[in-house]
Input
Amino acid sequence: MLILGVTWRTSRNQSKRRDNVDDRIEELSANVASLTRRLERIQESLGDLDVERQQTNKLAMVVERMVEIGDGQSSRTRR
Output
């Protein structure tokens, strides 16, 4: 009878442990899914920022060129 009690208790403890592990796995899976969604949003934002940076660089080049042209015309009109 003692062996049956110990066996039942051991089986019950293992079952609880498996249930805890299953719960933890579900929780971790949910966390991974949430983090994946957040990472995708961050990557999209970074892509948008890269496009904006490229546009800003192009505009800066245009403004620099306009200033160069303006400086060239100013020096000619002073003569």
Notes: The CA atoms of residues 6 and 12 lie 10 Å apart. The chain has one helix and no strands. The chain has a mean pLDDT of 90. The helical segments are 2-78.
